[in-house]
Amino acid sequence: MSLPASAAALLTEWLPSNDDPVRPLMTLGTIDPSGYPDARSVLLSEYDDTGFFFHTDSRSRKVRDVTETPRAVLTLVWPGRQLVVQGDVSPASADELDRAYAHRSRYLQLLAWLNTPELAMLDHEERLARWAAFAAEHPEGTLSAPETWAGFVVEPVRLTFWHGDPDTASRRVEFARAANGEWAESILPG
Ligand SMILES: Cc1cc2nc3c(=O)[nH]c(=O)nc-3n(C[C@H](O)[C@H](O)[C@H](O)COP(=O)(O)O)c2cc1C
After folding, report:
1. Confidence band for 35, pLDDT divided at 50, 70 and 90
2. Is position 120 within any domain?
3. N or C: more exposed end of the chain, with fewer CB within 10 A?
4. pLDDT tens readout for residues 129-171
């Protein structure tokens, strides 16, 4: 993403390292085919020089949305802080997909296989039984990503860091990328 040094420093300060098993939660906003915005929570799998990665099921609405309109917004919130990232969306590489799947918890690795409309329609007992049977057939460490495992990177065009302050007004530090690739930094009221 070749960000200004001050933006990169804020990301390092605010986001956990990629190997931290506790992943930040983001609200991912997309544009649906009717033109309405849609939003849902996803985990930030990792971030690097190209942007912010999330992973999901290729049959999901969000994948339909970003395939049709490859633009998104991410919002991350912490006590006293908010980061909003607007950006362009593109598919993650095959290597990144495998790495992200390997880093998912056991539960989320199983979920990537079992997150199907068929299972969702069953009653609770049957869902428990199917989950347990699948887990028993596929011990920890033996699963690789299903074909439906999909990943995307949001390459920022704008990052807005909101700082709260109980003793004075909040304010935002914003970095916006112009068409020529240059980044501009500005200070905004909260
Ligand atoms: C705490 C939390 C974390 C979630 N993380 C993810 C995630 O990383 N990837 C994902 O596809 N869905 C995740 N979900 C489920 C999504 O919010 C959403 O319900 C699902 O992906 C379907 O979204 P869609 O129909 O808009 O595509 C998460 C939900 C919650 C509550």
Report:
1. very high
2. no
3. C
4. 999 999 999 999 999 999 999 999 999 999 999 999 999 999 9
- Is residue 172 a contact partner of residue 187, using CB atoms and an 8 Å limit? yes
State how many domains the chain has.
Answer: 1
pLDDT at 1 over 70: no
Crossing angle between the packed helical segments 106-114 and 124-137, to the nearest 10 degrees: 110
Query: CATH number of the domain that 180 lies in?
Result: 2.30.110.10
Longest dimension (CA), the chain: 57
The pTM assigned to this predicted structure is: 0.96
Atom of ligand 1 nearest to the CA of 57: 11
Q: What's the gap in Å between 137 CA and the centre of ligand 1?
A: 25
Output the pLDDT for position 49.
Answer: 84
Per-residue pLDDT, 3 = 87
**Within a domain: 130:** no
Q: If you average pLDDT over residues 65-69, what whole number do you get?
A: 98
Assigned domain for 61 exists: yes
Containing structural domain, residue 21: 5-104+148-189
In total, the chain counts a number of residues equal to: 190
Q: What number does the ligand 1 atom closest to the CA of 63 have?
A: 27
Mutation probe of ligand 1 site: the residue of 43, 45, 54, 75 with most atoms within 8 A of C-beta: 43
Question: How many whole angstroms from 102 Cα to the centroid of ligand 1?
Answer: 18
Q: Which atom number of ligand 1 is nearest to the Cα of residue 60? A: 27
User: What is the distance between the alpha carbons of residues 48 and 133, in angstroms, rounded to a whole number?
Assistant: 37
Give the 3-state secondary structure percentages of the chain, helix then strand then coil, rounded to 5: 30, 40, 35
Ligand 1 binding site (Cβ under 6 Å of any ligand atom): 25, 38, 40-43, 54-57, 60-62
